[in-house]
Amino acid sequence: MLEAIKSPDGNLQAVIFRRDCGATTDYSTQVSIISVNAKLPNKSGNVFVVDTDHGNAPEQEGGGPKVKAERLDNKSLRISYDPRSRVFLEEEKQSGIRISYEKRQE
């Protein structure tokens, strides 16, 4: 796990994590929304999945593109990422949370 961002009411958290799916694929950075009491499941993110698109996007230390998440309130989350990343999953809603996205090159 790279980072966990709790909702203001303390019920849910957005967890940013890195995943390695084998030697022939890039590391991916993923986001899941889960209960604060839940353990991060060993499966793909339920909100957002992105990789560097074979090096087109900058890679953070340890692999995968950098992803940031910001809680706006109990019912909304903003995720920002490099526009050169390759997006595999980009959900608009999960567990009652509205999710917005911002492409931001650093």
What does this structure look like?
It is a single chain. This protein has 106 residues and is mainly beta. The protein has one domain (3-103). It contains no helices and nine strands. The chain has strands at residues 3-6, 12-19, 28-35, 48-51, 67-73, 76-81, 86-90, 93-94, 97-103. A five-stranded antiparallel beta sheet has the order 1-2-3-4-7, with no helix packed on it. The relative contact order is 0.23.
Give the arrangement of secondary structure elements.
Layout: E1 3-6, E2 12-19, E3 28-35, E4 48-51, E5 67-73, E6 76-81, E7 86-90, E8 93-94, E9 97-103
Parallel strand pairs: 6-9
Antiparallel strand pairs: 1-2, 2-3, 3-4, 4-7, 5-6, 8-9
Strand content is over 45%
Structural class by SSE content: mainly beta
Radius of gyration: 13 Å
| Stretches with pLDDT under 50, minimum 5 residues | none
Approximate shape: globular
Describe the biggest sheet?
5 strands, antiparallel
The helix content, as a percent range, equals under 10%
Overall domain count = 1
Total of helices = 0
Instruction: Give the SSE order as H and E letters.
Output: EEEEEEEEE
Instruction: Report the span from N to C terminus.
Output: 22 Å
Which strand order spans the largest sheet, edge to edge or round the barrel? 1-2-3-4-7
Average pLDDT for all residues: 93
Strand segment tally: 9
Outline of this structure?
This protein is an all-beta fold.
